[in-house]
Amino acid sequence: MPGTIGGTGGQGAGGDAVPAADGDGHTSSPGGLRRTLTFRDLIVYGLLFIAPMAPVGIFGTLQATSHGAITLVYLVATVAMAFTAYSYAQMVRVAPQAGSVYTYARVGLGEGAGFVAGWMAMLDYLLIPAVAYLFSGIALHALVPSVHQWVWTALAVAVTTLLNLWGVRTAARVGFAVLAMEIVVLAVFVVSAAVELIAHGAPRGWAVPLTGEGGFAVGAVLAAVSVAVLSYLGFDAIASFAEEAAGPAVTGKGGRGPGGPDRVARAVLTCLVVAGVLFAVQTYLAALLMPMSAAELAARPGEQGGAFYATVDAAVGGWLRDLVAVSKAVGAAFAALAGQAAAARLLFAMARDRRLPGAMSKVDAGSGVPRRALLGAALVTLVAAVWAARRDDGLEQLSSVVNVGALTAFGLLHAAVIGCFWIRRAGGAPSVLQHLVVPLLGLAVVVAVIVEAAGAAQAVGGAWLVVGLVVLAVQYRGRTGAGGLQG
Question: For residue 35, what is the DSSP state?
């Protein structure tokens, strides 16, 4: 097993004590996070953030871009994101602390890179929930038009924030019920689609979702993959709960079996595989049932956003279309719940290391939740979501900027694996395959997706990076003036 940095009762990446875990895996430090999340809870948080039916909103776009090979797109995207998931699994065992990629970059690359990784991930963790809340508000407004979508959006923020404040276990239980509902709806779609296909056959051939219409086009598939990988954003949030995973803080402590870090690592990988299977199955069936070809869809860009709903309506009926819409409305709000919780842990970890105001490093004694960090994340998300909900182009504006932050952080994660195992030698004996080849492949995927990102997203991501570098420079000057920066 790799060496563990900041293990039980040890020092964190910034020199602060990490709360120790008792024999049952619960935090023994009164001011620390509580180790109460089971393996199932971690999977629930990851799948909630991703959303089991995440492809619904971009199904039409990917179908048109890939020339009909949408299922192949998601299979390739799953493999591409597996490199990032594997790097997370490596680093969570080395540094099993809250903060996720922020902590890992600090361990593998140093203070400055860690701050940049956390700063860029912050953009993702604060704005992706805002997009999800907006999706929920739009869907609920469509069902109840008399109430404006910004009101529904704000209500969704309020309800899920209260659940998060109640405690991580309570939120996980409610989230499990919502996730079960989403999977049931997905199962209803799968069965209904299968019945329809058995009765009437596939109009364009059973292999078309894998090979494309009119011949396989590598460039078209890769262009679609660069968009499809964004459906997986959220599985990485599981790593932010490393200090709350049940079990000893060190793997296999005292012969008690897998520790919290191992549970988190397995949950990250499992979540990605489950999401990949769900995405492939639903897009395969929907592509077979589509009433129009990919070429026709490409010629009608205005119909791409609702292509999945139109397909379900035409093939099965309006009742299933409405059921999917309701599921997406509720599921989006709880995807935001998981994202908000992850954002709070990131803010908590950065505040604990004095990279953000120290008030956000406080943990509520009753609920075991970093309450101030959670409320800070909720406030930013609320402002962004309501602002977007009150604008006609709000969804487009908000969606265009949420991805570059996460992708930049992913890139630093892969670099951190190489730095930790090969340069700093902090993670045990390095493996060429696990700690060099895999992160380099993952880094290549991330760079390719960033290059394919929209110009507006690149501009906002670049501006956010510049602001972060300025903040880092100010902090560096202050610390060196006060006696030096910790390495």
Answer: -
